[in-house]
Amino acid sequence: MTDQKYDNTALQTAIVILNWNGQKMLADFLPSVLKYTDTSIANVIVADNASSDNSVEWLKIHYPEVRIIELDQNYGFAGGYNKALEQVHATYYVLLNSDIEVTANWLPPLVSVLENDEQVAAVQPKLLAYHNKTSFEYAGASGGYIDKFGYPFCRGRILNTLEEDRGQYNNPVSVMWATGACLVIRAKQFHAAGGFDARFFAHMEEIDLCWRLKNQNFQIKVVPQSTVYHLGGGTLPNNSPRKLFLNYRNNLLLLYKNVPDNERAGIFFSRFILDILSAFLYLIKGQPELFVQVFKARFAYRKMRKHYHKSTSGEQKSLIAHKEIFPKSILWSYFVKKHKTFDSLSFKK
User: Fold this and answer.
1) Burial class of residue 112, CB neighbours in 10 A (0-12, 13-18, 19+)
2) Residue 217 and residue 327: Cα distance in Å, rounded?
3) Which residues pair with residue 229 across a beta bridge?
4) What's the pTM value of the predicted model, to 2 decimals?
5) pLDDT tens-place string over residues 55-76
6) Contact (Cβ atoms closer than 8 angstroms) between residue 127 and residue 140
7) Which domains are present in the chain?
């Protein structure tokens, strides 16, 4: 692994964009990052996961001021960031997707929250959709939550229903997880928690990291005073079998790692039923390739979970310890109770 020559002096904030064959994304979105970032207090870095599309050469020609970290292979989102951040010296890391358009004054409100409260380990801005700038975006909206069975949702996005942003979620609040699309995190806490779980490769790794931090009594917050626009689906499209496989497998690993032993049995029994129902729904809808991925994900999870038994011992907290975990089924609330918006949900048992 190599990188360009750069000033080793640690800056307060490092904005790290992980790239894999995303030269077009960099061309479209990097200009907004450079335009709206004060480079006297924040470094902009591109970490490249061994791209084959001329991304690195293009960057060197068009943006020689941007530091490049070149990784020797594609380590995925989780492993790529772990490898890159070992080489970055800063107080705060900004993990920024290559398909994010930032706005004026996007960074100061995020860093300010970390500066003023040492119990906050990570924050995210409000994520709106790049192609529909009045709509929340799927990957993080205005802060992330999960239900008791591990299904993620957001303020502004439940399952595939995206709300219009009317300012209804503009208050900064504590959340269960902050999106990896634009995650601002203390470097000290990132490394002390072990960084991302590289075995995840991609998807759900930020939820796992945030859950581990919350189990250590840190807070995760959304700061809607900062707004960014996310294209989404840049590396894997939303209907990709590979993406579905990673989401199902990693979600099960996420639960296994973070739910205490005495609460796992009931949750995993319910998840088994829900996953089977989900698989057959894909089959009924004429998507046999997705039907297969659900079972492949469950099989892969069972093979991988042996790696976690000892490593997670003593790190779990009861689900009820986190008020940001929805104590019911989000699927039941959505499909049966018809709660399609976050503000229609009740977190009371």
Assistant:
1) middle
2) 19
3) 101, 128
4) 0.94
5) 999 999 999 999 999 999 999 9
6) yes
7) 2-230 (3.90.550.10), 241-344 (no CATH)
